[in-house]
TrEMBL record:
E.C. number: 2.4.2.3
Reactions catalysed: uridine + phosphate = alpha-D-ribose 1-phosphate + uracil
Domain Nucleoside phosphorylase: 29-264
Enzyme's top EC category: transferase
The protein's name: Uridine phosphorylase
Organism of provenance: Flavobacterium soyae
InterPro entries xrefs: Nucleoside_phosphorylase_d (IPR000845), Nucleoside_phosphorylase_sf (IPR035994)
Pfam family, one: PNP_UDP_1
């Protein structure tokens, strides 16, 4: 039996942070970072059956072309992903009344939709990037036993290439869901490695008033290659999503609309159009899942 201090429930029986009960979520879920982006997706729904919000965690569940889909905002960073993935898993794989894990487990399909800047000159603005791997620099996932789901060869290659200071913790690498990759990929979508940082400023190489440990890290990442997999973009959630989903038995995929290209110094003339195009593309692919 899982103790009350480990799995905290609200008085109405919903999970503590997400404010959700099992009937409130679909098996197919879209993650966004910004709570204001939830309705930018659900505006395309035929109907919305449930909506709730607690803190930065906003969820709407509805119907798109006959398919029941939930859209959820996770907020920023791997620490929030730890909350979201564990509580989502509890909703489908733990009996909240008996506090016992269920004998028959459910696998959720989780697709993250985000915006990002490309690190590679040949990945233009307004294109889509699929994260073949999530490379985590954040250490959150190291609180769990991850050896069975991580790619240690890619980790070792990255550590060697960047001369990584192990005092910052060992980077981890988790692949995307092969199932979702096959459903959502197309010849128009770029694939690569998405780096997940534990912060926005120093951890991503930004310098304001504080010096950073490795000023050349971003340049090293730009030219890293492992079995024809390059680092395509840098953000704050993907590797954590991949890691916890793999450990818990869920399918996860991260997609980004590229609105800036750092190598060429260009920015999308209409980033909202690029995001809407990725949203409708993803919704149509998810609606095809049986």
């Amino acid at each position: 039996m899982i103790k009350e201090s480990e799995l905290i429930l609200n008085p109405d029986g919903s999970v503590y942070h997400l404010n959700l009960r099992p009937e409130h979520i679909a098996n197919d879920i879209i993650f966004v970072g910004d709570q204001n982006r939830v309705e930018k997706i659900t505006q395309f729904f035929d109907s919305i059956e449930y909506s709730t919000q607690k803190r930065e965690f906003k969820t709407q569940t509805g119907i798109y072309k006959g398919k029941r889909i939930s859209v959820m905002s996770t907020g920023i960073g791997p620490d929030n992903i730890d909350i979201v993935l564990n509580e989502l898993d509890a909703l489908v794989n733990i009996d909240l009344k008996t506090r016992q894990p269920k004998e028959k487990l459910t696998s959720l399909n989780i697709v993250r939709i985000g915006t990002s800047g490309s690190l590679q000159a040949d990945i233009p603005v307004d294109s889509f990037v699929m994260s073949k791997f999530g490379l985590g620099l954040d250490n959150m996932l190291r609180s769990y036993l991850i050896d069975e789901v991580s790619n240690t060869a890619l980790e070792d290659a990255f550590i060697h290439h960047t001369n990584w200071d192990i005092r910052k913790g060992r980077p981890y690498v988790i692949p995307c869901s092969e199932k979702l990759e096959k459903i959502i990929e197309s010849d128009k979508i770029f694939k690569g490695i998405t780096v997940t940082a534990g912060g926005f400023y120093g951890p991503q190489g930004r310098v304001l008033r504080l010096n950073i440990q490795d000023e050349e890290l971003n340049n090293k990442m730009d030219n890293f290659d492992f079995d024809d997999n390059r680092i395509t973009n840098l953000e704050m959630e993907t590797a954590a999503i991949y890691g916890l989903s793999s450990l818990l038995g869920h399918n996860a995929l991260s997609l980004n609309a590229i609105i800036a290209n750092r190598a060429s110094g260009t920015f999308s003339e209409d980033p909202y159009k690029a995001v809407d195009a990725l949203i409708t593309y993803t919704l149509n692919k998810l609606s095809s899942i049986k």
